[in-house]
Amino acid sequence: MKQSIKFVIVFSAAVAVLSACSKLKEDVYSSVFTSNFYKSAQDAEAALTAAYGPLSDLYIGPAAMLTSDFSADQTYPRAVVGRNTLTLFSYDPDYSTQKSFGRAYEGPYQFWSACYKGIENANWAIEKVPAIAMDASRRDAIVGEALFLRALYHFWLTRNFRDVIIRTTPSKQESDAIQGKSPAADVYKQIFKDLDDAIAKLPSYSPAVAKGRASKEVAIGLYAKAALYAENWQLAKDKALQVINSGKYSLVPNVLDLYNVDKEDYARMENMFAFEGEQGATQDFTYAMGLYGPRNSQGRDYGNSTFGSIFAYQSFFDSFNPSDKRRQLLDTIYYDRNNNIVHQKDITPITQKGVLVKKYMDKNSNGDRNRCNAPILRLADMYLIAAEAEARMNGATSTAYQYINAVRARAGLSDLASGLSKDDFIKAVLQERSWEFFAEGDRWYDLTRTNTFMQVIPTAVNDVYPVRTPQPKNRYFPIPLDELRANPNLEQSPEWK
């Protein structure tokens, strides 16, 4: 993806222009795609690049992390430029505050627009690439990657908005885009179908697979995660074990190496699929480094352009066992550029209990251009999916303990206490997921899929956000009003009407 992503802007711009012009001259412009494109191997690669492109839209912002993390109980933003609406659950279906501050790209609005852009581009590749005369194995892989991406985008949409539009064909005329939404259960059926087809076409992981590209095992991993959300426990466990037993991945012995920008290639033994950051002239880097790093670029180790915009809750930091190596990815001090220690009370003027997140650091960044990768699927996720799914079906069995203890051992912790009830074991798995995947855009979805956010969030408060009162409707985000105005067949979620 790194090598080819630079073409996405040109390709996506072409899609936008052609779509707009089709309203004026519907015959001429629609024929450009079918007659003058999708003819060569280069066209096929460009089509796939366009399908990957919205990953940049989601991780540069980075809406893929902030949309969920600002709502959860691990990290919180400074209350500026409309960011506090997600933390306080004060957003509206028009996302008016985010839009008025120019921050719609950080929130649910960006998820909706970017995912459907990705689906549209994937649909063109899935339909057109099979007819291109080129190397058959690469052609199959391109179609497989596009199918994986279509599944990924639909998965992200349904876990944010629940019932959404399923799109499996490209929009060749305006009416093709005017569709109604489908129940989440049907969305998952389509996700599973796409992943079955993708797995049949994708190559297995090897160093030859380009960085940031999907492999067979990545598609199986997404299958496991989607099945967990769909509460198909047996399927979730089976797919997670396929990845674990594939022999393609292993847990990185030192968890800190997962986030070391100088060890990213080494970390691919566990980091199955990620948004790949780079410092080049393109915009392929996430602003997470700048948001999490100390204010005024003062941190010696965090990056050369950082803003002090996001911090971890003190209560979350305190929840770690002091011997947990993952707690070292948080800090209550930092070194300034003169090698002086800045203590916790001076980390940020908004509170004396600011806690810094150290997962996205590039001390040699080119301004805000950094090499930080944003994990999307990791092997640790497969172990914890297998643990939860096994417990959901059979209780806290020795097998379930085996899976969670593999992750705990890597963190430097002793085995989970034996003899837990089924419910207590599942709670322990969810807590383990919180410690393992913090600041990776995962926690909020664990709370919403288990419908526990109403109990957890009101206790995640501090002197910056002393009161947080989510409502049942906040389990899913409202469909953006702009989409409802443009699509008469689309209905708002009942809770948000």
Could you describe the 3D structure shown?
Helix content is 46%, strand content 5%. It has 20 helices and eight strands. α3 (41-60) packs parallel to α8 (136-161), α8 packs antiparallel against α9 (184-201) and α9 packs antiparallel against α10. The longest helix is centred in the first third of the chain and has 26 residues, at 136-161. 48% of the residues are buried.
Annotation field: number of helices: 20
Low-confidence stretches: 1-33
The helix-and-strand class reads: mainly alpha
Number of beta strands:
8
Strand content: under 5%
Reported for the largest beta sheet, the result is:
2 strands, antiparallel
What is the string of SSEs from the N terminus onward? HHHHEHHHHHHHHEHEHEEEEEHHHHHH
Gross morphology is globular
Helical percent range?
A: 40-55%
Distance between the termini: 40 Å
Mean pLDDT score, rounded? 93
Q: Taking strands numbered 1, 2, ... along the chain, how are they ordered across the largest sheet?
A: 1-3
Based on the model shown, name its key terms.
497 residues; mainly alpha; two-stranded antiparallel sheet; 20 helices; 5% strand; disordered N terminus
Short description, anyone?
The protein is mainly alpha-helical.
Present the secondary structure layout.
Layout: H1 8-21, H2 26-36, H3 41-60, H4 63-69, E1 75-77, H5 84-88, H6 96-100, H7 108-128, H8 136-161, H9 184-201, H10 216-229, H11 233-244, H12 264-267, E2 271-275, H13 288-292, E3 310-312, H14 314-319, E4 330-331, E5 334-335, E6 341-342, E7 356-357, E8 374-378, H15 379-394, H16 398-410, H17 422-436, H18 443-449, H19 453-456, H20 481-486
Antiparallel strand pairs: 1-3, 2-8, 4-7, 5-6
Helix pairs in contact: 1-3, 3-7, 3-8, 7-8, 8-9, 8-10, 9-10, 10-11, 10-15, 11-15, 15-16, 15-17
